[in-house]
Amino acid sequence: MRASVLIVERPPAGFVGRTPVSCFFSALFILLCCTGALGQGPIEGGRPDVDEPGAALGGQFITANAARAPAKAQRAAEKAATAIASNQLKEAEKQLGRALELYPDYGRALTLRAIFKMSTDRSEAIKDLQHAIHVDPQYGLPYAVLASIYNASQRYDDALTLIHRALPLLPNAWQVHYENARALCGKHRNVEALQEVTDAALHMSADIAADSRSVAAVHYLRGILLFDQRKFEEARWEFQMTVKAEPQGPLAPTSDSMVARLDSRETQ
Question: In order of start, what are the domains of the chain with their CATH numbers?
Fold first, then answer.
């Protein structure tokens, strides 16, 4: 299973033909997070979750809320995750219903159901994420997912509040640093945003599950922020890497235009 995000961010100030802001975590990326690939750090009172696929990545610990989940609810959540990954939507819905019938306050199952609902009923997905945060405040994923939704709606202050809670729980998750960069960029705090997207790129380099679209998104946002700070040579390289990562992707045309614009600057 591979991580993926899709972003169409704003070009730098002054760029003719601005691209509308639109970014979201794909269900597969969030599912990957759910199965422990982000490596959430030790939680006081938690225990190592040796059954998590990400446990080998450095000691994923489950929260007290997850530890209380009945075994049947845990198995149903695992089956739901597998069904979502396989696009077996009826089976996923059935298993999530089973898990939450057994344990209505199961943070992981609530988060999975939010993922399941994101494309069809975003308001209900938000309710599930808020519920997950309330019942399992030590679980990092719902903060990150909800922050991504708020970024997509340009609710940057709300996103930052959630990201600040997610970062201590998922400090090495490039996705959280990336969402932080997006929110800071939306607030025009570009120097801070550049640092965060640089951190995202560093963490992503160690993530074998990051797919080409994710790589392109991080390079593109970093290119925008470097251009804004007039670091043109570095920005050109980032836009070139965006195209190299995903030549037919949604960010390639704008990146090619930015490279052409930077080349034109040199010839003038």
Answer: 5-63+138-267 (1.25.40.10)
pLDDT at position 149 over 70 = yes
Q: Minimum mean pLDDT among 21-30, 48-57, 207-216: which range?
A: 48-57
More confident residue, 2 or 132: 132
Contact at 8 Å (CB) between 40 and 29?
Answer: no
> Is the backbone of residue 17 left (phi > 0), alpha (psi -120 to 50) or beta?
left
Q: Which of 146, 151, 226, 162 is nearest to 186 (CA)?
A: 151
Alpha-carbon span 48 to 42, nearest angstrom: 8
Q: Which of 92, 104, 75, 72 is nearest to 31 (CA)?
A: 92
**pLDDT, position 109:** 95
CA distances to 26, 107, 189, 240, 260 from 73, in Å: 24, 11, 43, 47, 55
Helix (H, G, I), strand (E, B) or coil at 149: helix
